[in-house]
Amino acid sequence: xxFKRNGILYRxxxxxxxxxxxxxxxxLSKVANAGTKTVVYLELYDHRGKCWVLECEMLEGxxxxxxxxxxxxxLKHFDARxxxxxxxxxxxxxxxxxxAAVDVQWFFGLRRKG
Length: 114
Known about the structure:
Elements: E1 2-5, E2 8-11, H1 18-31, E3 38-45, E4 51-59, E5 62-70, E6 78-87, H2 88-113
Antiparallel strand pairs: 1-2, 3-4, 4-5, 5-6
């Protein structure tokens, strides 16, 4: 998983349950235009059990994302590692691209096995 803002990349390698994450993001994009304030927190884990929290806040055509990483010394403390603000349209476009990428990977994965 790669988050990008102004040319700066923040990576989470070996994300567990990536399809679940994509489905959750797709569900979020459906409520993005609702106009009501929505705040959602998603826990993300890598294959070694490291935890990140994705905070997504939507209100009046704007979306704010923040990625928080669990501090190694204080397990209950999370440090902000990435933040992004943009329009609902930008968010929905990014989620659609993420969904398409996963669908293509899934399709070709099935074709190779079959």
